[in-house]
Amino acid sequence: MKQPSLIPPTYDDIAAAARRLDGAAHRTPVLTSRQADAIAGAHLFFKAENFQRIGAFKFRGAFNAIAQLDASQRRAGVLAYSSGNHAQAIALAASLEGIPATIVMPEDAPTSKMEATRGYCAEIVTYDRYREDRMAVADKLAHERGLTLIPPYDHPDVIAGQGTAAKELFEEIGELDTLLVCLGGGGLTAGCALAAQALSPHCRVIAVEPEAGNDGQRSLSEGRIVHIEAPRTLADGAATTHLGDYTFPIIQRLVSEIVTVSDQALVETMRFFASRMKITVEPTGCLAAAAVLQGVVPVKGQRVGILISGGNVDMPRFAALLAGNSVEL
Amino acid sequence: MKQPSLIPPTYDDIAAAARRLDGAAHRTPVLTSRQADAIAGAHLFFKAENFQRIGAFKFRGAFNAIAQLDASQRRAGVLAYSSGNHAQAIALAASLEGIPATIVMPEDAPTSKMEATRGYCAEIVTYDRYREDRMAVADKLAHERGLTLIPPYDHPDVIAGQGTAAKELFEEIGELDTLLVCLGGGGLTAGCALAAQALSPHCRVIAVEPEAGNDGQRSLSEGRIVHIEAPRTLADGAATTHLGDYTFPIIQRLVSEIVTVSDQALVETMRFFASRMKITVEPTGCLAAAAVLQGVVPVKGQRVGILISGGNVDMPRFAALLAGNSVEL
User: Fold this and answer.
1) 20 to 30 A Cα–Cα from A210, which one of A68, A172, A188, B241?
2) Which of A98, A115, A149 is the last residue of a domain?
């Protein structure tokens, strides 16, 4: 088993990340909704990271990692493998810091994501996701070109950056009874749990996974990192196969419970967001809210924080889901 | 020609309306977007009334009018004829003030709007819009039951209430070079123009109509209120047939120009809002933004205010428009 070689992040790292992000990231709004409160019978506070730069919280971790690179690393450039929000986050963060970025993406990644990534001046290297291993492709490139790999979640600087989302939430609205966060590889969950421990110590932190990919839930109950096959779920941002060596121990220590929600619940929540709260939220971004609005996690009478992780969804797909049509997973 | 019998509103009435609305209406956010700024080559400030209560600015005028009723008017109740946002606005404002509300709606009004209106405890009276005149239906009801009719736009209190949207915008971001407002019957435009005159006297106010219903544009050029047939346009909130006796003189005096945009431009703008700015905006709410983003009104280098009037659109319709499918007008 690979052992972490860097020091695990603490709340101090989140505070330092917040200083780095000041002026670079948006301080996203905290939304409330009388209708959502009525459904849940609770006071819900939605941290709207769909309004973050690149449309998702991923910018926080990416920028926090890249801002700490030394001069020679900056000259050589950075590398990421991602077909999703992490790619755009790395591309934008690198571009803001004047650093070249290379992104390894499957050749069948959504056009909109490729274009958005190219729009931030990153070089895209594609691979065949049925025949090639993206880690191998990325490692080869990193080695050949001397690039620094910024992983999507399992890195102390990435975790600390993501934690600033919850830090802002607690600073704006005070302590909470429950905080719900979507769970993929665990970067956001681990960072937010560290922030909750420091700023709202009695707050229970609950992570929410897609039903099809409950590796986190199983990992928590088995006490080890469980690996699964890539899950087929609408929540593409949480379609990870395992937690990380940095994220798992933090989650094990600070997260009370991991629950799952169905893809159907995600679609209903997405429709609620679009029609009632007037916001675009991608399926992954609906995970935490779905757990509350669909009654998976009882929160009656509580003050509840809900992380909306992002709002990047192709319009044809968004339209199909709102219309109740099935889409390809 | 019917003559106004009440005193035309002034900025003082807007300031008074703002005091009445404090705590009842939301102070909606002002959104910015680097992408929108890049398209326009300007600094755009979007006043997001889609986040207002009932999902549109109409709540402002409705509440301001209802809050000023005397005790006997309150006992008897209020009446409105509307199939759209004004109906919900009156229903909610009346309910907050503990006043009975009756809404006259065409029997084929969208189910979602009927349900939303009923949800605020209003009584709905339907009519056949192909055989009956809604004004006649409403007048008869008002007379029989002693109800006070709150018109959708042509009333000083309604105009003053709508003006608070622009007042908040100027207070938050300072003076502007141009303010764009969607134009139906002119309540929002007149109110916002009065606010602009008081708070940003050098700001040019431009009203935006749907191409299919340019009665305002024609009225301005002919110097009289031009009546047209009910226009067929996606912008249902601006599908009015004529300006009002109160709204026209204010618009004539304070609005520099009235421009039109096509339904196609509205759909493209709606898609931009959903995909890039992550917000749901109804077609009427896209009018002002479309004029800038589609280059109808040149604003290069300027500070530009854009009123987003509302976000109430049925999800099947929203989905169809985002998907590029045609919908019934």
Assistant:
1) A172
2) A149
Query: A106 is in which domain, residue-wise?
Result: 59-149
Report yes or no on B5 lying in a domain: no
- Does residue A270 belong to any structural domain of this protein? yes
Catalytic residue among B47, B58, B113, B167: B58
- Per-residue pLDDT tens for B81-108? 887 899 999 999 999 999 999 999 988 8
* B46-87 pLDDT per residue, tens: 999 999 999 999 999 999 999 999 999 999 999 998 878 999
Higher pLDDT pick, B326 / A318: A318
In this structure, the answer to whether residues B169 and B220 fall within a common structural domain is yes
Contacts of B315 in chain A (CB under 8 A): 271, 274-275, 322-323
Q: How far apart are CA B168 and CA B174, in angstroms?
A: 10
User: In chain A, whose CA is at the least distance from the CA of B320?
Assistant: A319
Residues in chain A: 329
**Is B278's Cβ below 8 Å from some Cβ in A?**
yes
- B77 lies in the same domain as B203: no
Question: Could you tell me the pTM of the whole model?
Answer: 0.95
Burial of A68 (0-12, 13-18, 19+ CB in 10 A): middle
Cα gap A83→A110, rounded to integer Å: 8
> What is chain B's alpha carbon radius of gyration, rounded to the nearest angstrom?
18
Please tell me the distance from the alpha carbon of residue A72 to that of residue B76, in angstroms, as a whole number.
Answer: 78
For A72-92, what is each residue's pLDDT tens digit?
999 999 999 887 899 999 999
* Phi–psi pair at A257, nearest 5 degrees: -160, 150
Is the Cβ of A111 closer than 8 Å to some Cβ of chain B?
no
Contacts of A278 in chain B (CB under 8 A): 50-51, 55, 279-281, 311
**Which tens digit of pLDDT belongs to each residue from B277-308?**
999 999 999 999 999 999 999 999 999 999 99
- Angle of the A156-173 helix axis to the A11-21 helix axis, nearest 10: 80
Is residue A136 domain-shared with residue A266, that is, in the same domain? Answer: no
Q: In three state form, how does the secondary structure of B110-163 look?
A: CHHHHHHHHHCCCEEEEECCCCCCHHHHHHHHHHHHCCEECCCCCCHHHHHHHH
Q: Which helix (H) or strand (E) holds A209?
A: strand A204-210
In chain A, the number of structural domains is 2
